[in-house]
Automatic annotation (TrEMBL):
Taxonomic path: Bacteria, Pseudomonadati, Pseudomonadota, Gammaproteobacteria, Oceanospirillales
Organism: Marinomonas pontica
Role: Adenine glycosylase active on G-A mispairs. MutY also corrects error-prone DNA synthesis past GO lesions which are due to the oxidatively damaged form of guanine: 7,8-dihydro-8-oxoguanine (8-oxo-dGTP).
Catalysed conversion reaction: Hydrolyzes free adenine bases from 7,8-dihydro-8-oxoguanine:adenine mismatched double-stranded DNA, leaving an apurinic site
SMART domains: ENDO3c
Protein name: Adenine DNA glycosylase
Family to which the UniProt record says this protein belongs: Belongs to the Nth/MutY family.
Cofactor(s) of this protein: [4Fe-4S] cluster
């Protein structure tokens, strides 16, 4: 993988004419604003992130505001974005910045990497875009551009290949306009050098692209060796509804799936909804309405969810602390909820099934 000349100038010239320059986090650019955007953009498309980012920044305009917020409030703003560990780590990092670093992000990649949830590429993106630091990134878009340009014959997830691609990324990183170059490489991968339909004829690197010369640039990056089919799991989720029309939510543990979010009580598919509810919550069930079964897919397994609405007499939550809480529908939907739980409750709310 030999570097070529004039790589960065061609990318920057393309960016000046075609790059994205009006994204919300490009306005009033600060390390804090860029940091929040980079965390949100991990595993998430720009179009999805924009409304979440705008709402988030309206509520938490400074690192101090984020650090002072309750975790529930932060997770509520993240609800629907998925990968909730990002939000929890971001909240922890904000507290560290305020308590230990005078509310300022470190100036080195190594220093930023010491904050929870931030790796080398994300740290470099934050610093190059917000402060003009000469620090190369290697996110998914950049990997795709470099892997195609050099027709890298091995999977980028292999350590040797990844190290070689880091060397290329650092070699091509210019000493000036570092933030523009970082954004340009992201934009090039997101808008032209896309996964399935690259627009090679519009690419500023087309002339020297080894992937294009193979007539099938989409074979790069080489795909990860296939794993076995994702395992499947099944659960029941219970929408317990009291005579006031309130829903019972359960606070998830801070670690693990849906960590720190409010969710619905769950049980195994083979268990009796009525028997379980009456024994677990010392109440009487007056009505059970099965809801539509659906599948929610995580990165590592499929989850088949069987929801039911159960009308119960009031429940005395003795000795449960803050684990369970009754919420009116509007209050419930304002909490940080896992996406499938929000889907269930929104559908019930639209159907007017919160009150019996």
């Amino acid at each position: 993988m030999q570097p070529v000349d004039n790589f960065a100038p061609r990318v920057l010239a393309w960016f000046d004419e075609h790059g994205r320059k009006n994204l919300p986090w490009q306005e009033h650019r600060t390390p804090y604003r860029v940091w929040i955007s980079e965390i949100m953009l991990q595993q998430t498309q720009v179009t999805t992130v924009i409304p979440y980012y705008q709402k988030f920044m309206a509520s938490f305009p400074t690192v101090e505001a984020l650090a002072d917020a309750e975790q529930d409030e932060v997770l509520a703003h993240w609800s629907g974005l998925g990968y909730y560990a990002r939000a929890r780590n971001m909240h922890k990092a904000a507290k560290m910045l305020v308590d230990e670093l005078d509310s300022e992000l470190p100036h080195s990649v190594e220093g930023v990497c010491e904050l929870p949830g931030i790796g080398r590429s994300t740290a470099a993106a934050i610093l190059s875009i917000s402060r003009g630091v000469q620090a190369a990134i290697l996110d998914g878009n950049v990997k795709r551009v470099l892997a195609r340009f050099h027709a890298v014959p091995t999977w980028p997830g292999e350590k040797k290949t990844e190290n070689a691609m880091w060397d290329l990324a650092e070699h091509y990183m210019p000493s000036e306009r570092c933030g523009d170059y970082t954004q340009a490489m992201m934009d090039l991968g997101a808008t032209l050098c896309t996964r399935s339909k690259p627009q090679c004829l519009l690419c500023p690197l087309e002339e020297d692209c080894q992937g294009r010369l193979t007539q099938d640039p989409t074979q790069f990056p080489i795909r990860k060796p296939k794993k076995a089919a994702k395992p499947e799991k099944s659960i029941q989720l219970l929408v317990l509804t009291n005579p006031k029309g309130q829903w019972l939510l359960e606070k998830r543990p801070s670690v693990g799936i849906w960590g720190g979010l409010w969710s619905l009580p769950e049980l195994a598919v083979e268990e009796s909804v009525v028997l379980h509810t009456e024994q677990r919550f010392a109440t009487q069930v007056s009505a059970v309405t099965p809801l539509s079964l659906f599948r929610h897919t995580f990165s590592h397994y499929h989850l088949d969810i069987s929801p039911s609405q159960i009308v119960v007499s009031d429940i005395q939550l003795v000795g449960e602390g803050d684990k369970y809480q009754w919420f009116n529908p509007d209050e419930a939907l304002a909490q940080g909820l896992p996406a499938p739980v929000r889907r269930i409750l929104e559908q019930l709310n639209e159907l007017g099934m919160s009150v019996r």
